[in-house]
Amino acid sequence: MSFAKKRKAERIKEFKTGVASTQASVVSESNLVKRYRVVHAAMESTLSAINDIANHEERKVLKLDFINTHRDYISEYLNADEKHQNAVLAQYMIWSFDVGEIEDAWELALECIKQDQAMPERFNRTIEAFISDSLLDWATDTVEADGDPNPYFETAYKQVKSGDWDLFEATTCKYHKLAARMLEQEEDYAGALELYETADKSYSKAKVKTKIDQLKKKLEKQTS
Q: What is the pLDDT of residues 3-51, one digit of tens each?
């Protein structure tokens, strides 16, 4: 069972039994802190092993092993009353994106933002920037494979458009362009044109002039 599905099942169980979420964990706060230290040590060991491996698939195996081994700890921490700067939570979220477990990655990403968790020191960017880039990369690959990146892309795009996340103009522009591409694939050419124009206005290097001209000509033919 994925982390997100397990969390959903736990919430349903808590609601039915009338037990508060803070009482759901069977591990005491003191024991949870002790377990954090153990899991943190395991994380550092895994990071060290990953750094010694060049092969992407072999690195992925180690990340998946860590994720599956420590899924219960993440669930227990999120159900606990007290929160703290949790390097394990942030790293777990990062590796969930890396291995393509998007449902877990997205839920943990929102939790990390809510708790104001810090990115590992080796990342020279904010957690919002990492999440927006990671989700965009996944969504782009999904669209190119003729898949549907929603509801995750749709939710992230709303955050991007709202300005709640402090992002580079280039990142915001990429979101507009991908949303436009999706509308174009659905043959909503007017909607796609609008978003390509928005992308062009949002970033001087959007490189969508040709696409805008093509869509304008296509729309003109439809109305002539």
A: 566 655 655 455 444 444 444 444 455 788 999 999 999 999 999 999 9
**Who contacts 167 (Cβ-Cβ below 8 Å, separation ≥6)?**
128, 129, 132, 160
Identify the three-state secondary structure at position 212. helix
Q: Do 95 and 165 share a structural domain? A: no
Residue numbers of the domain that contains 202: 125-224
Predicted pLDDT of residue 3: 58
> What is the radius of gyration, based on Cα positions, of the chain?
21
Provide the number of structural domains found in the chain. Answer: 2
* Residue written as token pair 């796609």: 192
Of 63, 92, 124, the one marking the end of a domain is 124
Query: What region, left, alpha or beta, does residue 158 occupy, with left being phi > 0 and alpha being psi -120 to 50 degrees?
Result: alpha
Indicate the residue type of 132. Answer: S
Tell me: do 119 and 26 sit in the same domain. Answer: yes
In this predicted structure, what is the pLDDT of residue 20?
45
Per-residue model confidence (pLDDT) at position 16: 43
Q: Are 152 and 178 in contact (CB under 8 A)?
A: no
